[in-house]
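Support request, please re-run this one:
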Amino acid sequence: MDIIKTAESLIRFRTETGNDKEIKQCMAYIKDLFQGSGALVDIFQEANLAPVIFIRNTNTENFDALVLGHIDVVPAEDDMFIPRIDGNKMFGRGTLDMKSFAAVALNSMEYILKNRLPINFGVILSSDEEKGSKGTAAFMNEHPNISAKIVLDNDVGGDIQKIVTKCKNPVFVKIIAEGKEAHGSTPWEGIDANELTLQTLNKIREFYPYYSLNGLNPENKWVDTVHFAKICGGDVSNVISNFCETLCDFRLTENSDTEHLRKILDKCMVTGVHYEIVSESTPVVMDETNPYILDYKKFAEEILGKPLEFEHIGGATDSREFAVKGSTVIMHSGSGEGMHAGNEYVEIDSVLKIADIQIKFLEKLAREKQ
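Re-run finished. Output below.
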């Protein structure tokens, strides 16, 4: 498979999360790639949820290795869906996050099929990862017994020299303040929901400091954090707001949990304010002495000709669904910049090297089974 040409083809589909027509066309393209190959390809979709494409070389649900990823992307201008190559860089929406590495996974599947490697292998690509992975959750509910010894997760793009061994637990919380409307000139006749919100957020900041580029920047970044992603209160300038809603994005390390967060939030609510946990997950934490991770690291260092480092990141990953089942999750991706931005690009040689590393690792798994 020409990985870069496949990546370019994937990028041309405008698979912004929720664009059902383009997402279905992209999945149909992927399915066609495996016509006559012997692969089993299913497109799973539950009502009103985004589809998931499931490709495998076996009818079992007990896998030696799975690759997880997604084909949806964040919104972008039209020209970003026309991939552009400049030297070693490929520009476009999804080049780094993460259609190039979806192409790597498809290449691995093709290689295993052509070479008849004796391992149970599969690829799972979702299409709503950028907005909560509800489709993936439905897929996992439909396949409660699915398991994998190894999960290869290439959705941690940015630096091929680093293998991620820890991801935080994202917990999204809605804070709702209810006040009483009044004219802006007589605030004593009302209760300002915006003011109640500010008091509550200030209390939260006593537990979770405000970190920023031009402010507090901790040396140890493996800490619980929160940012106030969206604050909505008030309609017009001369009316005391009777309602305000804030969406908070908490990122918790493995040393914390949602129950601990609830206890803190309970202390922070002022009269007239309450909260709801919108969604929660689990952190992914891997042992850096895990023999599979060390084997993978060895292959990567041989191919790259440089030592690799272990890294911890604040982002979430769909591989958490398998981490809780006991899978060894290997989180490694290629290099690039501009994820979710207008200058997104991936370094082409890093894509090809990730593909080589993945093949070498899968070949070793196959030898071990013989």
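The domain at 169-279 is CATH 3.30.70.360 (Alpha-Beta Plaits). The mean pLDDT is 96.
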